[in-house]
Design a protein that fits this description.
Elements: H1 8-29, H2 33-37, H3 40-67, H4 75-84, H5 90-108, H6 115-124, H7 126-142
Length: 148
Amino acid sequence: MSYLPINLDLIRTRSADIRRELEMLRAHAALPEADFSTDPEKVRAARYSLTVVVEAAAAICNHLVTRQGRVSESYPGCFQLLGELGIVDASLATRLAAMARLRNLLVHGYGRVDDRRLHQVLRQDLDDLEAFLAAVGIHVLASGGESP
């Protein structure tokens, strides 16, 4: 049971951001690895889009966990909390947390991210964001809200 009402405008806006950027990321994922990783503009665009989707998902995540009376110190921690709260399943929470850690590497430059590894994430992990949006929709409906 939520402590505070869910802000559907926030959920809808951030969900639209995720869906828009996923289209771009899927186009990059469809490229052969060599074509992607040797094109600096494609790599830069994919890094930006991945950052946007993780930040939008984290905004939704933080909103939902706060409504449950919880607070997260980090993006990865927020996704783990979503799993603990049963809003997403534990394995999805773990995968989303890993994607958030990759976003941290991209944004803060803690280490060099191999562009081939980035391409692998694009090919294998984007469906996790669709699963996240589906789980959020189920949670919102279960909480008495409208479909986001």
